[in-house]
Amino acid sequence: HGGSTADRNTVNSPQAIKAAILIQRWYRCYMARLEMRRQYALSIFQSIEYAEEQAQLQLSSFFTFMLDHFIHLNETDKDNKKQGSPSGSDIQLLEYEQMIEVPDSYHGPRLSFPLTVADTNSLLRAFKDQQQLHARYVLQLLHETKKVLKQLPNIIHLSTSYSKEITICGDLHGKLDDLLLIFYKNGLPSEENPYLFNGDFVDRGKHSIEILIILFAFLLVYPNHLHLNRGNHEDYIMNLRYGFTKEVMNKYRSHGKKIVNLLQDVYSWLPLATVIDSKVLIVHGGISDTTDLDFLNLFKRNKMKSVLRPPKSSTERNYDLERSDFVEYSPVTRVKRCPSKVCTPRVHLELTAKEWKQVVDILWSDPKNQNGCTPNKVRGGGCYFGPDVTARLLKRYNLKMLIRSHECKQEGYEISHDGKVITIFSASNYYEDGSNRGAYLKLNPDLIPRFVQYQVTKSTRKQTLHQRVSVVEWSALKSLREKLYCRRSELIAAFQQYDHRKRGRRISATEWASAMESVLHLALPWRTLRSRLVQLAPDGSVEYLSSFNDLEIEPPIKEVQPALVETLYRYRADLEIIFNIIDKDHSGLISIEEFRQTWKLFNSHLKIDIDDESIDNLARSIDVNKDGSIDFNEFLEAFHVVNKFKN
């Protein structure tokens, strides 16, 4: 016992207590530093994501022009007569499906309609085993889903009185593992276990089509207990940029085009909002100071094929809607060779500016802490709405709460506006393994939300917290360095404006931060990040050219000028959308002439300072085998930024 007493005296000694306090302080500081690194990594990812969305929206008019003028190229009169419309009539579609034979060699699920619980179970098993549903069943499923969605109102009204709780899930973005984990933890959808999925089912992740198939299958089996809101990514032009179109074409090559076209119609029939117990409003993005739920509930929502195709008058003209960065562009006069029947813009179902704006606001808006309603210039569409805007809308419609998604949150959810706005985001590891948790919420009859968090763990399972944070941080900084490289010329010019005394290519940290923000507009804490992005001189100044030290682009074509390489990299996502529009069969091949003409059109629209001769030289260089075609997928892969010195 004497030894035990001595141990207790040692433990209780002042030195031991001081040591424990020091260790505790060190640990708290260490954890705080890790948390700060994780938070700024998340802010980098989010800033870059929103900048890309802004670019997509600002180019919406250009994409609209491309779709209007090139969508019917290479389609024969026979094809047009057969299809009639992008998705075809119901009768023609059924005939088309019946023509698709399912071979005996196919071992995946074989669906029969109407679907049963056994069908949903077979789909879940198949996708867990990485099997693929045959194109015939995909088309039939989409066709049946469209019929069900058409019967629904714009705003769904649900009640918790028929069940104990309703489960609400946010963005999934093609992350099948997250959906399967939700079902494992929370149970499958059923009459006793209703679900609401709040948009953005597709894009970014690799299994978007599987997620749609699962959700639509459960919708068909439980139409009163599985509910879907439209998100801003349920949009075929968004899918061209963010990967879903490419996923479908890769998985369903011969029938992919038909699936993509039919999905346009399915998207347009998705409900816009849900109200639970007449007290909780659920929309994908948010609201504005002009959001009118009565108006939203009445208009024909299927007119909104794409938010990125705003309404326009019969004569194309420039216009600027209130709280919008969308500006119409009309380069028709430059396309002399385009036949009149092709150059005639498509006639839409008379979507009005008010209808368009109402939908943009609920799909694209984000909450802010300050009062008021201002344009969402970070994303480029929708608005930032403050607590006062929330309070007024809730009071006007006698509501208690707004639930929305649309934003990645580190913990999977966030509560704002004095508890009246909840953000729920269900895609874990959204930017990188370990970057964020996912979450869903359960709403009981007392309307008290209960959050359930999770994180799909694979490669991160055996890593320490420090290792996981380092991976996320490195990935975020790599993405940011790529942005620096593709704006290299502009950044150097901005740096040199401050280096008027030619101080050995050095400027102050404040000047460097100002130059970075003036070019990139990412609203990042540049002074905090400078030690991770540039070399610092002994006096604390920034050696600004070191911003590009560990980056390079290795183009496969020696003749390409550095300025053109930089430009191609900067606009590669936009070019991919344009080429996907031209490449009707999604073969990855387009003609040299199409490449040349499209790039020149894009060049003139963005006022990019690349001369025609450089474009012609590039086009000839890309066509290595001189067959008159460009393999654009390989071309895109070739122009990418690499780190010369990987940490």
Automatic annotation (TrEMBL):
It catalyses: O-phospho-L-seryl-[protein] + H2O = L-seryl-[protein] + phosphate; O-phospho-L-threonyl-[protein] + H2O = L-threonyl-[protein] + phosphate. Keywords: Calcium, Hydrolase, Magnesium, Manganese, Metal-binding, Protein phosphatase, Repeat. Its cofactor is Mn(2+); Mg(2+). PROSITE patterns: EF_HAND_1, EF_HAND_2, IQ, SER_THR_PHOSPHATASE. InterPro entries: Calcineurin-like_PHP (IPR004843), EF-hand-dom_pair (IPR011992), EF_Hand_1_Ca_BS (IPR018247), EF_hand_dom (IPR002048), IQ_motif_EF-hand-BS (IPR000048), Metallo-depent_PP-like (IPR029052), PPP_dom (IPR013235), PPP_phosphatase (IPR051134). One of its GO terms (molecular function) is protein serine/threonine phosphatase activity. It comes from the Eukaryota. Its EC number is 3.1.3.16. GO terms for biological process: detection of stimulus involved in sensory perception. It holds the Pfam family IQ. Residues 570-605, 610-645 form the EF-hand domain. This is Serine/threonine-protein phosphatase with EF-hands. It comes from Pelodiscus sinensis (Chinese softshell turtle).
